[in-house]
Protein: V-type proton ATPase subunit a
Organism: Selaginella moellendorffii
Amino acid sequence: MPKMHLFRSEDMTLVQLIIPVESAHGTLTHLAELGALQFKDLNPEKSPFQRTYANQVKRCDEMLRKLQYFSDQLQKSGLASTPSAVESDLNFDELEVKINELEPEFREVNSNLEKLKRTRNELTEFLLVLDKAGAFFESARQNANSQQREDESISGGESIESPLLEREMQVEPSKKLKVGFIAGVIPKHKANQFERIIFRATRGNMFYKCVPLDERVSDPATGDQVEKVVFLVFFSGERSRTKILKICDAFGANRYPFPEETLKRRQMRIEVSARLSEMQTTLDVSSDHRETVLKTIGYQLEHWLEMVLKDKYVYNALNMLSMDVTSKCLVGEAWSPLGALPRIQDTLRYATVETNSQVTTIFQVLHTKEAPPTYFQVNKFTSAFQEIVDAYGVGRYQEANPGVFTIVTFPFLFAVMFGDWGHGIVLLLATLWLLVNERRLGSQKLGDIMEMAFAGRYVLLLMSLFSIYTGFIYNEFFSVPFEIFGRSAYKCETPSCSESTTVGLVKYRDKPYAFGVDPVWHGSRSELPFLNSLKMKMSIILGVAQMLLGIVLSLFNAVYFAQPLDIWFQFLPQILFLSSLFGYLSFLIILKWITGSQADLYHVMIYMFLGPTDDLDGNQLFAGQKYFQLALLFIALISVPWMLLPKPLILRKQHLEKTQGEGYAGLEEHPDEEHEEFEFSEIFVHQLIHTIEFVLGAVSNTASYLRLWALSLAHAELSAVFYEKVLLLAWGYQNIFIILIGFIVFVCATVGVLLVMETLSAFLHALRLHWVEFMNKFYVGDGYKFQPLSFVNLGKEDES
């Protein structure tokens, strides 16, 4: 039988490479660009720090850390990393030197810029303190002037221009009261608590005044925009001053010097404004310089990241190779597809020329009994279906791949449960949007759900197309039937029955409805019994057909791997057992449909076991049915010991003949040959479990396919409920507002329940039918995937 492209995995071979040390990095770089070799780890006992190229990997990690720092700074600055059309031709060592020079330089620029911003923010706050606190002092002075004019005769003609504390200064030094004040800025949300703490600390011997700022200001410590207030605290005594200073530090309040005299305050404000202007100019120049440096880095950042990631990837691969005793060559073993060997040899010759190596790489094929990896050549259409299979388990090397059949059977079984051509069209439109925007969406970072939907877009495409097909068979468009394929085979017997579909219908022609279910069944009294019977029997036929396909595929595996015991004592009894019971049931269902018989198939199957010799009476569908059933029952019964006993006994006999035929001469001829241990009890128990699992599974798996009937019925009934109890009910009110609300509720219910939840439910049930009922008949799934050394896998490894 010719080998199909996707039916069996690619032929693999184990190769050995002996690479000179001086050209090892360049050679593996070219092999990674080819992507056809999966290297084996020949140093499993060594930790990552003990390997040959551990220092190079460490250097790559350090460079990646610095490049990530540059990337973060670009994002914070709102600049995009725009690759330059002309890429730099730096090698790894030159790039390392350049990055090591750029990083401290850029950190120094950042540090200086932060200091400038901090100073600018402090000067801004200082200026606000001078304005707000100065306004308070000016207000106090105006009040004092007015009070002085009233009390001028009493005050003795004192000028208000004299210091506010002049009276204390005129008192005797021993009785002088030392009053001071502290001015500063504090976040608005801390102001009330700050005031209460100061009040308690000074026992009320203070005067507190705060003025909120009109706009948010940048905090000098964090650079964040914060709502703040300017505060003034008057106190007396050095102890109070010390306490207030500690409280200011605890609350993160910024204190600023504030002169009491008006002239000094004005002069200080002029100086602060000038410094602030100079600082802003310096800050603008520094920011422009930083942005220029960042843009220069941004032009090459992606290229540098790619270069360092590739180098790290290659060095990690080199660490899987072993150094020979001369320390001049690296020895590696790798799996490769058989068809890729010529391309690998051409790549090795090209790498030898490119690296100017005096010694060529030695390449040779090894023979081994080790199981090779599994590799399928998939495209963007088949990859999603293969991922469904691989999620169950990666196939054993060259066993039959269920992914070939999953392309058709998976969306079809989904559609059996989801069948409605209206819902299928909506699902198709959503899928077409994904396909039209495939290139744009493929280059974006999507959310988890959207990422899964995009990855399975071709699965969704077939699911929607099959749903439209089964929807035409069920004749359901949002639960509404249409006479698309001709007229109904029934008509009203009397004019009055046109208003009702439950009575008065008669069949007026022998030619049935052309395709699918006759629309007249929908809404009739016998709709549910008719559709129940149809879908239940259809589910059994589909399930038995798929399980028989799985058993036939086990025959293909047994023939391909030359396992005659599996053919005679596994495939044959299994196909006979399933066919004699449930295959026969499927035959009776089809025969009953063809002949129009009224036989009770439940009675036939039950009494096939309970009373095999009893007469069938009215349940007989063909002549000789009773004796035919006896023969099938005998075949089913004999298939169980046929499956259980011969295979373990024959294996035991073969093992005894093999061990008795081996002598000392045979052992000397093959001293390195490994002999597998043979435990008859283990093999017998394994076969017993396999037999019981198949016999019981034949019943349970067939019953499991009834989920096709159950979910199809649930989908149809939910669709009918939404249509009749929401849309039609709202339409009956003849009110545009109620109709609009009803339509919105109908659309939301249809999308949320039928197009999202029901789609997910039918998808999961179809997944279970493939994994459990179909694939367990032939699929081992204990292999491991071919993961070649390829730069294409760089992004995947980075995500994991």
